[in-house]
Design brief:
heterodimer; A: mainly alpha; 2 domains; 5-stranded antiparallel β-sheet; 22 helices; B: mainly alpha; MetI-like fold; 14 helices
């Protein structure tokens, strides 16, 4: 390092005037205050206490606030109904301990920040603030351990006023995870010592973070939380009364049930079979059509055809079923032409054909879009040159058109292979099946509706969709890797 | 055969194939529209296309006068389409705008979260449990709130935003516009094609959706069913349902037992009419925006 550079560094360090340091402290202070506030809110309004009424089948939940007000009265006897909950009972003393620990955590964080704000960046105060931050982490980790324990152990009742009474998590688990995440973040931020620069950037981007809040909360609730529940459910034996968190862990029992049962295996095979059929008809006919569309040189004609063949994609499966019904029902068009009255849709022989053909009808035009997009980048001079060299139209298709969309074809094939367990089209099958063809329409997605949901086999259902998701994820990642290696086309 | 005739034959064959496909796409639609205008005896009177000699809107009159179920259903469908689309597009665009900012701290983490959501799904049963515990079952919001965030749409919009030139935004920022203003009056107007395409997909998805009604709204709340689900029931499960709220529908279909095909087709036509109306307006946008959008299949 030259002298000049070190001098510049020196002056840059010197430029960290007290005012700027203060703004970094402000950032931390805001985080701490927010954490304390959220913890307090959650402690007051989260569910602290719960009582299961076995005969009535509902749960009475108490918020921290209500608990406090009740303590001053005659105890926990007067309780109101609050809401139903699928969340769980837990052991007795843990909530109190946890509440104390969370309070301690908040205190520690506050202290740590105050120390750090007041103290200089040297000597004792640094050691102090380090110690405090580490303590924060310790407490946070302990709370995490407590909650992990609570999730894994099933709480049993303790008698109180003669009836079964469970203590809940200090908060309803949902709220706990939230508070815990925030607390850990704050502790981590302090340990990490927010640099001046980060504080400034974060401050600059504050409105942007504001934009993200609501969408991210929705994603956590509707995308992430179900994933968590699914993972837990598939390793548990779900009992309605105990909720997801209170049910017993059973390890791989659900999976061994699935793979030990010939019926379930048949469902999986059938899913694979229908998916493969769909994969083939989803790739080859659109390819053929897009080659034809591409070779129509009259622009108006081509765009007219394009707008027409896209239309069926925008109809719902309900409408497609309705139209199919009008054509194939016993009094429909086809029977009228043949002079018969066969119920084609309810016939086992025709069912799969009908399903596949209607799927082709709906998605054929739409499937050409990616191919046409790839073709629009091809240099038309290539075709002219080939023409001059005496290549016929079919040769041009074979040697120019197809090679130029080869990558797209490979990419599409690989991607739909990744979706193989989910691609059986449950929605369509649910509409098209009848009592006679139910057996043939039985794939994973329809199984989930008919047996998973309707017969309350929640754990088995969650296990099979966990299997579906896991295989899907692995397949997509592997296929994406292969696709990137072979064609250079990746998903992202 | 000379080269010239080969070329001509090829052009003719190619055009013929496209024409056949286009006809195959249109034919069932024309058929069902014609059936809905036919008198019962005319439906099967001719091959290929029924020709309504006495053009009659009897089926439509019957559909709309048999009870108020269809108006309620159309109302529900319109509500979920309009409100659901507006909320969804706004929320997705906001998140997309946030993660499209290159130097945003934490951007990478959020993108990883989004990609993970695409790779790993929640599954039907856990989602049902979450929706149940949020108290959304049997409310109209079950069509809206769970569908607001669509991760694919976020990624598509994000990609579009990243391709936009940053100069205008920076100029606006220097002029003192805040983030919200930049988003509303600079970024959004420049992103019309992608916003229009995403709106179209969301609208079509919302209007066409029946599965969430099937899962989350029970028969006692039949007044919350969207139009598509009524159509489905009028075709499929009529005999399984005998709730008071459905009496109108059942009565209507049963009373016209002989010519119920016209009525069913009239219902179907009503069910896809809005899409046919919207389609031409959006076409120019999705022709541009769709190449990104179609990746999601």
């Amino acid at each position: 390092m030259t002298d000049g550079a070190s001098a510049a560094l020196q002056s840059a360090a010197g430029a960290e005037s007290p005012k700027r340091v203060l703004s970094a402290q402000m950032g931390k202070a805001i985080i701490v205050i927010a954490t304390v506030f959220i913890c307090l809110l959650a402690a007051l309004f989260g569910n602290v206490f719960a009582k299961i009424q076995p005969d009535l089948g509902y749960t009475i939940n108490l918020s921290g606030l209500k608990l406090l007000s009740l303590l001053g009265q005659e105890g926990f006897n007067t309780v109101d109904l609050w809401q139903n909950s699928i969340f769980v009972p837990v052991p007795t003393l843990i909530p109190v301990v946890t509440l104390v620990l969370i309070a301690l955590l908040v205190l520690l964080i506050t202290l740590s920040v105050l120390r750090y704000t007041v103290g200089e960046k040297s000597g004792k105060s640094v050691i102090w603030s380090r110690a405090l931050s580490i303590a924060c982490f310790g407490v946070a980790l302990f709370i995490a351990a407590v909650y992990v324990y609570m999730l894994f152990s099933k709480a049993k009742a303790y008698d109180y006023y003669g009836d079964e009474r469970y203590l809940y998590n200090v908060f309803e688990t949902k709220a706990v995870l939230l508070v815990y995440a925030v607390a850990l973040l704050a502790a981590g931020a302090i340990e990490w010592k927010l640099s001046l620069k980060t504080v400034k950037t974060v401050k600059r981007f504050l409105p942007i973070y504001g934009f993200m809040v609501v969408p991210l909360i929705l994603i956590v609730i509707f995308n992430f939380y179900p994933m968590l529940l699914q993972t837990m459910l598939s390793f548990k034996e779900f009992v309605l009364k105990d909720g997801v968190f209170g049910s017993d862990w059973v390890g791989l029992k659900q999976f061994s049930l699935i793979f030990g049962d010939p019926k379930m295996l048949k469902v999986i095979w059938q899913t694979l079979y229908i998916s493969l059929l769909r994969l083939v008809v989803g790739i080859v006919p659109p390819l053929f059509l897009s080659v034809c569309l591409y070779d129509i040189k009259r622009q108006w004609l081509r765009s007219t055809f394009q707008s027409i063949v896209y239309i069926p994609h925008f109809f719902s499966w309900v409408v497609v079923y309705a139209i199919t019904y009008s054509l194939l029902s016993p009094e429909g068009l086809v029977n009228n032409m043949l002079g018969t009255s066969t119920d084609f849709i309810a016939n086992e022989k025709y069912f799969m054909w009908i399903v596949i053909i209607t799927a082709v009808w709906k998605e054929l035009g739409w499937g050409t879009i990616l191919y046409l997009a790839a073709l629009s980048g091809v240099d038309t001079a290539l075709f002219e040159a080939a023409k001059i060299d005496g290549a016929g139209p079919l040769q041009r298709v074979w040697h120019i058109t197809l090679p130029s969309i080869k990558n797209t074809i490979i990419f599409l094939t690989i991607m739909s292979l990744g979706n193989i367990l989910k691609g059986a089209g449950g929605e369509q099958l649910l509409l098209f099946y009848t009592a006679t063809t139910k057996e043939q329409a039985l794939v994973i997605d329809t199984w989930l509706v008919w047996y998973g949901m309707n017969e309350l086999q929640y754990s088995l259902g969650a296990a099979i969709s966990f299997f579906q998701s896991a295989i899907g994820m692995v397949m997509v990642l592997v296929c994406n890797y292969v696709s990137e290696k072979t064609t250079g086309v990746g998903m992202w | 055969m000379s080269t010239k005739t080969k070329e001509i034959i090829y052009t003719v064959v190619v055009t013929a194939i496209c024409a056949i496909v286009a006809l195959a796409c249109l034919y069932p639609l024309v058929y069902s529209v014609l059936v809905s205008f036919c008198a019962p005896h005319e439906i099967n009177a001719s091959y290929f296309l029924p020709i309504p000699e006495n053009f009659t809107i009897r089926a439509y009159v019957q559909v709309f006068t048999a009870g108020n179920y269809i108006l309620t259903a159309i109302g529900v469908s319109l509500f979920r389409t309009v409100v659901g689309t507006v909320l969804s597009v706004i929320a997705c665009a906001l998140l997309a705008y946030a993660v499209s900012r290159q130097n945003l701290p934490g951007r990478g983490a959020v993108i990883k979260v989004l990609l993970f959501c695409i790779l790993f799904g929640g599954g039907m049963i856990p989602t049902y449990l979450v929706i149940e515990s949020l108290g959304l079952l049997n409310t109209i919001w079950v069509y809206i709130i769970p569908n607001i965030m669509n991760v694919w749409n976020v990624i598509i919009i994000k990609q579009f935003f990243e391709g936009l030139p940053r100069d205008t935004e920076e100029a606006a920022a220097i002029d003192g516009a805040n983030e919200w203003r930049i988003f509303i009056s600079v970024v959004l107007p420049m992103s019309k094609p992608v916003i229009a395409a995403i709106s179209l997909f969301t609208m079509v998805g919302q209007w066409n959706s029946w599965f969430d009604a099937f899962l989350y709204v029970s028969q006692e709340f039949a007044h919350l069913w969207p139009l598509q689900y009524y159509i489905q029931i009028s075709f499929n499960n009529l005999n399984q349902i005998n709730q008071g709220k459905l009496d109108d529908l059942i009565h209507m279909i049963e009373s016209g037992a002989a010519d119920d095909m016209s009525i069913k087709m009239a219902l179907t036509v009503v069910g896809c009419l809005p899409i046919m109306i919207v389609y031409p307006f959006f076409q120019k946008y999705f022709a541009k925006g769709v190449y990104v959008g179609s990746v999601k299949g």
